[in-house]
Amino acid sequence: MRAKFLLLIAITAQAVYAQPKAKVTVTDLTRIKQVGGIELAPDGQRAIYALATIEPNPDQKEEYEYKTHIYLTGLKPGDGKALTRGPESARQAVWSPDGQRIAFVRTVKGKGQIFVMSLDGGEAWQLTNGTYGVSSPSWSPDGKRIAFSAGLTMAQMLTDSLVNPGKMGPLWSLEKPGFSSNNFIKSDKKIKPNPDGSLAEVRAYLEKDVEDKKAKVFNRLNFQGESTTEPDMNFTHLYVVDVKEGATPKALTRGFYSYQGTNWLPNGEGLLAVTDRDSLKHPDREQDNIIVYISADGSGTRKAILSEAGKSYRAPEVSPDGKQLAFLVSPSEGVNFAQIGLADLNGSSVSKIELVTFDRAPNGLNWSTAPAAAKGKKGTTGYAIYFTASANGGSPLYRLDPATRQVTQLTDFTAGVTSFDVNGNRVVLAKTEVANPSELYLTDATAKAQTKLSNHNDWVAQRQLSQPEKRTYKNSLGQTVDYWIMKPAFFDANKKYPLLLNMHGGPTAMWGPGESSMWHEFQYMCSQGYGVVYANPRGSGGYGLNFQRANIKDWGTGPTEDVLAAVTDAAKENWVDTSRQVITGGSYAGYLTAWIVGHDNRFKAAFAQRGVYDLTTFLGEGNAWRLIPNYFAYPWAADAKVLDANSPYTFVQNIRTPLLIKHGENDLRTGPIQSEMMYKSLKIMGRPVEYVRMPGATHELSRTGNVRQRIDRLLRIYEFFERYVGAEAQALTQK
C-alpha cells in the first residue's frame, strides 16, 4: 500500500513538473516586484531593503497604485519580513550606528516625514513634522542626530527665517527685464490691486493674477519640468535634528542654492555636500558643481573642498577612518561621463587628488574594509571601494583598491546589479537577469558564489521565457557593436515569425540582458510570437567615452547603420519571415524610428514613441534641450544644414511605412508639439498614420506613470503591429 502511495506521489509530481509554462502576459507587469535601497546592519548580520510593488487601487476599479515598503532579512534564504505596511509607502531606510533602530521616510498629509523604528519591537514614531517635505535621512556617527534634506519653493524661501535669515532675495539676478536689481520681488502689501489704478496698483493686480493662477510669468531658463511648466524655482536645504520626540530641526545651509549628496565625517562635526560653484550665477545657468564642507552645529559655516571651473564634482564618500575621500567628477558640459576621484582628507581639506582610469560611467560608490585576501599585500590599504557601472549590456559590480588604483570586475555582463551594500566580506545585492527581473542575493567580497535570499518574483519560473543570444558587428568606424536576438517564446522551427527591432533612447542609454526596464516588454513581445532584436549602436553608454561620443553631429546616419546591421543579420535566421519586420523605439529612439522609416522601406509598420523629430526647434520644446548644444551647437551658431540633415522631419515626405505616433500629454522632456507636427504632416499627405496622446502622462510612461496607461502603451504596440504582420494580416495577404 505504501509503495502505491509513493508511486502516486511520484506520478503527480511528474505531472506537475511536466505542465507547460505559460505566456508572459501584459498584466504580468503588475506582478513584478523591484528590490532596492539595500542597507547592511553595522554588524553585517542583517540587512534592510525596499520592495517596490504595484497594487490594485481599492477605490478605483482597473487602476493601480505604486507601493514601497521596508523589509528586514537575517541573510538567510526566504527569511525576509516586512517592517512596514499599510496604505502609505515607506522608503529611504537607514540603520542607526548601533544597529538597534532604523530611520525612514513616510508621507504624512502629502509631505515626507522621518520616522524612527526600534528593531526590538514597538511602533515607529514620527521624528519630524515640518512644513516642507523631507527626504534622505542620514544618522550622525554617534547616533544622536539625523541630517536630512527639505525642499522649499521660491515663495517659501523669501519668508523662511532659518534658511534666509534676512528674508532677502538671492544674490544672483532673477533676470527680470527692465529691473536692475531684485527689489521688485518685495511687494508692498498696503498697495491694493487695481487694474485701472497707478503703475504700482497695476503691478499689484498682475501679481495677484499670478497668485490666483491666472497667469504664469517666466524669467528663468529652465522653466520646463517633467509634467508642467515651472515659473518658480525650488531649493533643497540640509537640516539636522536630535533623535528625540518633539525635537526642533536646525538648518545647516542657507541661501538661494541647493545641496545634495550629504555624507557625514566620522567625527560628527561636519558633513560633505554638493552645491553650485558660482553663488552669483543663476542656478539655471550654473553647470559647475562643487563639494563643500558644512559644519553640523548650525552655524552656517561652509568651505569648498573640491572646486574647479568647467568641472562638476558630486557623490562625496568618506572612508570609514575619515582619511580618504572618493568622489565623481566630470566636465560640466558636452557628451561625457564621470570618473572616480580619490583624495587624502584632513578634516575640511583635501590633498593628493588623483583620478582613476576606468572607461565606464561609475555609480554608487561605497567604502568597505578590504577583502581578507587583499590585506597585508604591498601597497594595499585597509579599505576598498565598491561601485556599479553600465557596461557591455549589463551593470556589473566592481571593486577599486584605493592604493593601487586597480579596478576588479566582480560580476558578469549578463546581469544588472541595481542596488547593493557591503560590509567587510559580506555583500548584499539586488540584480536583474533574464531568469528573474529582481531578487536579493548574499555573496562575499569576490561575488563569485551568490545565495538567493528572496523569492519576490518566483512566479516567473512558471513563464516561458526567451533567452537573448549575443552577437557583434564591426561598424564603419571600426567599432564593435553588441546586439541580441531573442526567438519567440514558444518557438517552433517549422514556423516563420515576425521580427521586431526595438531601440533604446538616451541616446546614451544601454540595453542588454542585465537591463531591468525592458525585461517585461521583451518577454511579452516574445510571448506574442515575435522575435526581438535590440542593439547598442554608436552613442550608447556602457562602451567607453569614444563610443559614447561617436554620434556627435550624427544622430541619424551612423546609429541607423548599426541597428539596421543588427536587424539584417537577425533576418537571416531561418525562422524569420522577412516580409514581416516592424520597428519601435522611444525618446531618442522615437527620433531614430522616424528617421529610419524616412530612409528605409523594409518595415511593414513602425511605432515612434515620445520622440524628437525637428532638431531646429527642439531647443524650445523640451527640458532636454541641452542635447542640442552638447551634440550639435545652438541653432544660431550651428550650420543649419547639419540640424536639418539630422532631423527626421526633413524627410517626412519619404515616410510611407504605416506609423503609430505616441506622446504623453504632459511630456515636457521632449514636448508633444513635434509629434503633432509629424502626425499632421503625414495626415495631410494621406499616409497611414495614427496618433495616440496619453492624458496626464509624462516622458517616463514606459517605466513609471499610470499603470493602466503603461499597459495600454504595450498593448498598442502589439495591436498596431498585428494589423500589418499578425495572423489576420497574413491571411489577407495570402488570399
Automatic annotation (TrEMBL):
Peptidase S9 prolyl oligopeptidase catalytic domain segment(s): 520-726
Family annotation (InterPro entries): 6-blade_b-propeller_TolB-like, AB_hydrolase_fold, Peptidase_S9_cat, WD40
Pfam families for this protein: PD40, Peptidase_S9
GO molecular function terms attached to this record: serine-type endopeptidase activity
Keywords: Hydrolase, Protease, Serine protease, Signal
Biological process per Gene Ontology, one example term: proteolysis
Superkingdom as given in the UniProt entry: Bacteria
Extent of the signal sequence: 1-18
Name of the protein: S9 family peptidase
Organism per entry: Spirosoma pollinicola
